[in-house]
Amino acid sequence: xxxxxxxxxxxxxxxxxxxxxxxxxxxxxxxxxxxxxxxxxxxxxxxxxxxxxxxxxxxxxxxxxxxxxxxxxxxxxxxxxxxxxxxxxxxxxxxxxxxxxxx
Length: 103
Ligand SMILES: [Zn+2]
What we know:
The chain is an alpha+beta fold and 103 residues long. It has helices at residues 25-33, 35-39, 42-47, 64-69; strands spanning 5-9, 14-16, 56-57, 60-61, 75-79, 83-85, 91-94. Strand 5 and strand 6 (83-85) form a beta hairpin. The model has no long low-confidence stretch (mean pLDDT 93).
């Protein structure tokens, strides 16, 4: 069964979305754990013309601005069905806001 994963902010109910990251919990946890380091790249990205530099996964670009907006917030990983897992792998239940368009 397909189970695509993304990073989510519990404080804002916002999702950092990737494309078809099937069973890639480990990748999403790594992105969430290193969110502050990703956010720290924002000045570098802003200094250069759009597209000159990019932070990518096999499943799409990392939205550096998203990580700036949610810096120091409570980040977890979220499946396409809304299942939440904490960064230590513990299950946190299921939510229904996974695909809302909140930033
Ligand atoms: Zn947030």
